[in-house]
């Protein structure tokens, strides 16, 4: 195939970081060191493309970009090896996620904007391009939030085309569009995004039993691998063969945990593209990639050797 | 002449505004209404070009732009009527002035970045282009801060070329580069930027007498008109003929006072381009433009009629 991965991010963002000591509202702060100000393309699909690009995974990136912020993302991504962009342009501004990180008070302040309104025509245009892009890849990842005006059936619809063509499908998201995709056209690899909601398919995820039950429901719907983050440093992994609890056994700098979900999915994508369908092994590789990525602030997994070494940094316990 | 004004902003900024109610550090805030997020090109020279462009003043804009933020400014300005851009490009990012405006707590939080490092070559390149641009205009405005690595004699040097060619020269700034320009190659219209410092030519500006004394020093150095903001809603104006206190007689929404200095200078520039050298009248028009601009949040003076009507909104008292 021409590319490894088709990566869909319907609602990309420009992720901005400002490191400011003792940040408080009502004052003026100057950033005199350029390394305390950072901007990177973001959104869950784009993050996986960025993180796997270093390891040689080639991806086509699709979704909607708009305005000046959209141009910044387009330009930044055009300069990254192994990344091809194929975004639909709209007039309103792409969203920004601004984080003000205060390392002294150990606080993060966030300002998130909304993202552009997607017109029906743009949606049709996207769908047409998506269908032709499917012919260029074996793996399709659709992740993140959907713009509010897009029908919640849209993820399900996108997966239906990919599945008909026998593609390997991946999803990380949460919300009604996620639930509907699971029920109607379940992708093969599923990672609920539990940062903002612990409600999946109508279940509230609290105890390990809740996780295992929900994981099994998703497997029954057609998934082959379900990964759910459990508390801060654990993950519950469910396949057709059972359920496992992965637990980090090394201390992790908590300020580096941001984005480990994307790193986990990136590890899985990389593993399956290169080694095929051993789902438990893919999940172990994902966990190792997530552990390895905590060594970096940027959207980087580390080298293959670093990921390999990180396999010793977590324990695996069969729980179902 | 081909253009009315050559407008120099050595250190432009992208001015960003986020309106967030009850903004406090450590929390997540969502901007769901696009009108609560705004970005405009900024820097004192650019502001005058933006404000006068609506009234038909054509300007060439020079200075240094860099990185993604520089591109946003370039693109935004390219789309504005009567504005021509002729910036030198550098690799580091242009600065951003981020304002988080909290209308509930009546607080403003600001994050200002630094702007790019200017290499000697870029400075030479700028000077070459500046000299040829001088041939296209009668009026030259040089305003705002200078990047830290540029010699403090640079403003003075720029004004010396403009004065040799008989251009009408304008400056609004503060600091050693401002003082040196006054002493060595004093421009014709001078507005000290008193927001950040009240120290001008070694004098501390406190009483009206301090203002008049300093204004007369600047006139003696070669200026024909000096305008100094006095407290929040007044301005002291000094010409060869005397000194006047302008005082707003209407209540002004204080949240709209931001940028009235640029509006004042814009009114003066517009008046002199269209009516010639009646300096006290030019200052009155500047004050009226400043009053009129408080009706807008964006960088807008209002129509000629609105400015004319604003002439009744302040009193004039001779004080020296």
From TrEMBL, chains A, B:
The keyword 4Fe-4S does not apply. One of its GO terms (cellular component) is cytosol. GO terms for molecular function: ATP binding; phosphofructokinase activity. It comes from the Bacteria. Keywords: ATP-binding, Kinase, Nucleotide-binding, Transferase. Residues 34-294 form the Carbohydrate kinase PfkB domain. Belongs to the carbohydrate kinase PfkB family. This is 1-phosphofructokinase. It comes from Oceanotoga teriensis.
